[in-house]
Amino acid sequence: MSRSKRKNPIMGHTSCRSEKQDKKLWHKCWRSKQKMALRSPHLLDLEAISPILEREISDVWAMGKDGKQYFAFYWQHHLAERLAAEYAKNQREKINLKQRYLHQFMAK
Prior knowledge:
The chain is mainly α. Helix content is 51%, strand content 10%.
């Protein structure tokens, strides 16, 4: 996967790599509430059972990512150039840093 490349420049506003743990916890809680609702003795009619909605269990704002945003190629080049100019000591290093930053932006 080291050479995999992002097809669309859409990235999450995040402080974490993935929401896998958040989703696992959400599904675990959702499944247990569904089982309890189906096993409740006072509901004999299956039509009376309403499905438990996602918003009743968890809040998406409590998860690791806060949404997504389109990160246009123009802004990627602009940011890579600015960062390379800030940290590079000579022209050759600036070119290499810009290429490295562009590669990082489009890596998965």
